[in-house]
Amino acid sequence: MSTEISNLVVLLQSISQYLYRYGGLFQVIFGTIGCVLNIIVFSRKNLRKNPCAVYFLAVNIFDFLFINSLLLAITLESGYNIFLTTKSLFLCHLCYYTSLFANVLSTYCLILASIDRVLITSSKVTIRQRSNLRLSYIYLIIGTVFWLLFHSPAWFFTTITEVNENNFMCFYEIGSYLVFISFYSIIKESSSIILLILFGLWAVKNIRRLHRVTLPTISLQSRINRAEGTYKINPKDQQFVSMVLIDIIIFSICSSMAAIFLTHQQITQYENKSFEQIQISIFLKEITVFCLHIPFSTSCYTNLIVSKAYRKAMKNVFLCN
């Protein structure tokens, strides 16, 4: 039995190592490239006038930070045995603080984008008017300042600890903040999924309602009806809805895995586990963390698939137009 367990542990460690050596490196490289391209595209003059484009710009800035903090550190450690965060306390603090606020701010901005799509697809003029650049900048500034301050304790409650002889780990200090982070992570992932699905379905419902409305052909009558509630969403806003929806789907699938794993971990944390169970738990944790980073690396490539306007903007970037 001990030989079988030993073989299982070696197998799981090998799978994890190769997953991050190749899959993690792939995510870091292509995720970083995708974020940079998205930032360039959404900062172009013809797009940044749209509040949803501003939210997407912010999303990709925080995605870039998230990919190049925690994912990069885990990829180097698990895939290549390069332990940067355990060599410097400053890098340890920086990695965890950056990953915390970048993760939540990316999700926060995606939620704002989904709310914006609900507003812009409404049949009521007064509701559509709430989708504007001034409010989008206000929400982004307030949200960024709040979440930066909210996660500031992470800078002080992360440390480098010795797991065993000559084996160090950068992680949260054992205590009340670690307990808080554990429950906070579950609540954050679960509530984000619920909110994104809610607003995504709401936007789809608004679009279906608009498609059932046929606008009159007489221009004067058209203006009157638009004022009273009939409205046709323009193609660019329609494509922004598609981009938000595909991001919501990918995020919900990957984050639900994290929410389930974290919940199970909290429920079983005080149970006596065998060495084999501990190793399986560590392996599942590394798989969950890998999947958790997928939504932050794929946005550019899904946008190319679902949006003609995005493909045109990307083409103009490469043609320097």
Automatic annotation (TrEMBL):
Compartment(s): Membrane
Lineage, top-rank taxon, reads Eukaryota
**Residue intervals passing through the bilayer:** 20-42, 54-76, 96-115, 136-157, 177-204, 240-262, 282-306
Its main localization is membrane
An example GO CC term for this entry is: membrane
Asked if the Swiss-Prot or TrEMBL record annotates the protein with the keyword Transmembrane helix, the reply is yes
PANTHER family listed in its UniProt record: FMRFAMIDE RECEPTOR-RELATED, G-PROTEIN COUPLED RECEPTORS FAMILY 1 PROFILE DOMAIN-CONTAINING PROTEIN
Protein name per the record:
G-protein coupled receptors family 1 profile domain-containing protein
This chain's source organism reads Adineta ricciae
What lineage does UniProt assign to this protein's organism? Answer: Eukaryota, Metazoa, Spiralia, Gnathifera, Rotifera
